[in-house]
Amino acid sequence: VLGFKIAQIERRRALIELSKRYSVNIYSNSDVSDLLRVRYCGSVDYWSEMPKVFRASKINLNFTIPNIKSGIPLRIWDVLGSGGFLLTNYQAELPYYFEEGRDLVCFDGVDDLREKVGYYLTHEDERQEIARNGYEKVREKHSYIERIQTILDTVAV
Questions:
Q1: 21 closest CA partner among 37, 41, 40, 39
Q2: Hey, which bits of the chain come out as E strands?
Q3: pLDDT tens-digit map of 17-49
Q4: Nearest alpha carbon to residue 79 among 57, 109, 64
């Protein structure tokens, strides 16, 4: 419970800081009425509409819950698999699957996040290339078929 609360506080702080300089939209069913500069877009169907939101957004954010010390959050796969550009906090497993700065971009704290948002909003070609690379990596190397094969290969050993 504490991990979720800390994550909520960190996300809100980051959104407030970003909204001081940039247009920020949020798709959620959570109450964000206190985020005055953040445009609340409501919730959308995760399976049919959210991939379109991920792809159409200039920058998608991922904040991993602090008590998750291992693994890659589903949000990362969903954003990249939709062709969206992703800024995420670092997770130890990311380098095993993705190249930072080529497939996605990591941030370390709110100041770094704010700086990178500004950079990628003004470097559209680079941002689009990273999004394309992330999409291609997921499509080619991380499909359900690839994951099932990896599981079967591991179990067969």
A1: 37
A2: 24-26, 38-40, 60-62, 86-89, 105-107
A3: 999 999 999 999 888 888 989 999 999 999 999
A4: 57
